[in-house]
Amino acid sequence: MIAANFVLIGVFALLLVIGTPIAVALGLAGAAAVAIGLDLNTVAMIGTNTYASVAKYPLIAIPLFVLTGMVFERSGVAGRLVIFAQAIVGPRRGGLAIVATLVCLIMGGMSGSGPADAAAVATIMIPSMMKAGYPREFSASIIAASASTAILIPPSIALIVYSILVPGVDLRALFAAGLAPGLLAGIAVIVPTIFLSRRHGFGAADTAERPDFWPALRGAIPGLLAPVIILGGLRSGLFTPTEAAAVAVAYGFFVGVVIYRNMSWKDAWDVLADSAETSAVILVIISLAGLFAWAGSTLGAFDHAAQAILNVSSNGTIVLILIMVVLLIAGMILDGVSIYLITLPLLVPIALAFDWNLTWFGVLMAMNIAIGQFTPPVAVNLMVTARIARVPIEATVPWIMWLMLTMGIAMLLVILFPQIALWLPQMLGYRI
Q1: Which single residue of 1, 87, 153, 158 has CA 20 to 30 Å from 211?
Q2: CA-to-CA distance for 137 and 273, rounded, in angstroms?
Q3: pLDDT tens-digit map of 207-260
Q4: 82: which residues sit within 8 A by CB, 6+ positions away?
Q5: Contact predicate 200/141, CB 8 Å
Q6: pTM of the model
Q7: DSSP per residue over 35-101, as a string?
């Protein structure tokens, strides 16, 4: 068993180092460990357990929310939200950067995907921000950090995965718990944005005229209604999270084809194909991560690792800090869904040992991973925005450090005051 556990971790780490895709690394490491540590009858269960990881009804929500995000991004919603945000913020120093953050927050309530939001907002905002005097590196950094809030603001794909992997956690409570920390993370981006813009003179106050508020609001209403429909339907009990995803898809196509009338049948087909490709990647990762988790649990690797962490200290605060540091490093390298899949079999027993609230802990993990999404070297959100801005990732580091600091402070507030996350689900009567 000890040898098999070393094989599980060693093969996975080696494959990641040489650049193997995360799904392949997880699957091969799990299969190799099972082959070495267990008998042939158990080895025959590899295929069954791999399939069982995705044969779960709640997972249907993931491809549907991916499709929802793509439909709204390509139907012109993002552009109309930009105009509406400009009408609210008006021309001022740092105004366009604040607009980008606000649009990312709203778009996060439609897709639940940081990289998708980063791509949609960066494509629209970066050219305008450049004309207003914002450096490319600064613009890419602000949008990447703002888009990371999508992992917190419902419907978050990562939180859906968390609710499936952690028994007893209500997804509705998790969605409600992520809302206030998500807005807090947005404020944590806006504050340094205003400070840095004024300090360096980014964005002259008269760079653009303020759009008329009411016409801008009318144009943005279809997009603004999407989060209301999703969260309102969940709160009222009208539909489950999976059904909410299906309703959101139907509403998105209605907005693009009937209301805005800028989606042709070819556009609709392209959206379906692209979302299917993205969803397939996510579900393959989930499937093979399930094999990895099953191997680790069966061989006892996660139990031993959890016990080793618990032996470091009996102080829950010290252990939590250690976990947050590990998750932050992981977030710089891996995407949020993969981190949940890999670490939860290890972290849930630790959370239970210290009697941490699992809803709060899931949101805390999401905040930590959100910071990793815009922190080099990998930084999935920053990779997208830097590519669109045509700047190297290393050029964004001076600006990213400010955003890491303020987002870290926001996460510290949620650690010190769990009610920031838990008050809303408690008020709505959800089980936490």
Answers
A1: 153
A2: 32
A3: 557 788 899 999 899 888 888 888 888 878 788 888 888 888 898 889 888 888
A4: 99, 103, 121, 124, 125
A5: no
A6: 0.87
A7: HHHS-HHHHTTHHHHHHHTT--GGGGHHHHHHHHHHHHHHTTHHHHHHHHHHHHH-S-TTHHHHHHH
